Amino acid sequence: MDPIRTPGLPFIKMHGAGNDFVVIDSRNGAARPVTAELARAVGDRHRGVGFDQLAEITDDPQADYRLVFWNSDGTEAGACGNASRCVAALMMEALGRDEVRFATRRGLLRAVREDGQVWVNMGPPQLGWAEVPLAHATDTDRLPLEGAPAAVGMGNPHAVFFVDDAEAVPLTTRGPQVEHDPLFPQRTNVEFASLTGPDRLRMRVWERGTGVTLACGSGACATAVAAHRRGLTGRRVTLDLDGGTLVVDWREDGVWMTGPVARVFDGVLSPAWLAP
Ligand SMILES: N[C@H](CCC[C@H](N)C(=O)O)C(=O)O
């Protein structure tokens, strides 16, 4: 056997506005190699590859494919907007189509390519307290927490704070405090946003199970929805995140989102590393 080109587990490294992913294709009856332990090991930026989320593509009888999302702490995420866009771009290319339907824990989602941009419909926002989920009945537009954030579910929970200056927020202290607040029985992703122009927001994010990331698609959707509910913006919003700009459009049939997609490299996890 060639000692350098060894077989192993192939993956693709991608990012969407700096929100980075390892994509593993487990379709066609391939054994499902991804476990919480593997996700943690691959997610380690020093000893593994590093990612914000690992997206595993699997077979689904009702859709073109199914997506399973893992955080770098080994927990599963119910939704991931940027990985959904990245994988949709990959699958549109592979299938030679401008539209794909994929299954997630939340249900069937759709992505389309329009004018070279991949848009994903993340579904309608979940605005009831039990859907987010929150620990008890309360107004999701203004939670009884310091800073009165809004709670929005996008298949995963989000707490959105509107602040004068998102740049000034101490993300690494406020983020984990809110993530672990007892009001969120499944913990929460945390966004801080400030209005910078008409229908334009600056947003920074602390992700549940991952920490500070350069962008978060479901977080951008949740923030746009919360901003519109508060009368701060219209239904189509541009969000400037640390790693790039996302556009969200809250339409009749769900919250659509688009932004940049990059395929960075194709790699193979070596068998020796996989089974030391
Ligand atoms: N980066 C993702 C969201 C990951 C959310 C995850 N941290 C969770 O536990 O819900 C996005 O683009 O939507």
TrEMBL record:
The record marks H158, E207 as: Could be important to modulate the pK values of the two catalytic cysteine residues. Keywords: Amino-acid biosynthesis, Cytoplasm, Isomerase, Lysine biosynthesis. Homodimer. It is found in: Cytoplasm. GO terms for biological process: lysine biosynthetic process via diaminopimelate. It holds the Pfam family DAP_epimerase. Substrate binds at N19, Q53, N71, G81, N82, N156, N189, E207, R208, G217, S218. This is Diaminopimelate epimerase. Catalyzes the stereoinversion of LL-2,6-diaminopimelate (L,L-DAP) to meso-diaminopimelate (meso-DAP), a precursor of L-lysine and an essential component of the bacterial peptidoglycan. It is an enzyme of class 5 (isomerase). The active site is at C80, C80 (proton donor), C216 (proton acceptor). Its EC number is 5.1.1.7. The lineage of its organism: Bacteria, Pseudomonadati, Pseudomonadota, Alphaproteobacteria, Rhodobacterales. GO terms for cellular component: cytosol. NCBIfam families: DapF. The keyword Nucleotide-binding does not apply.
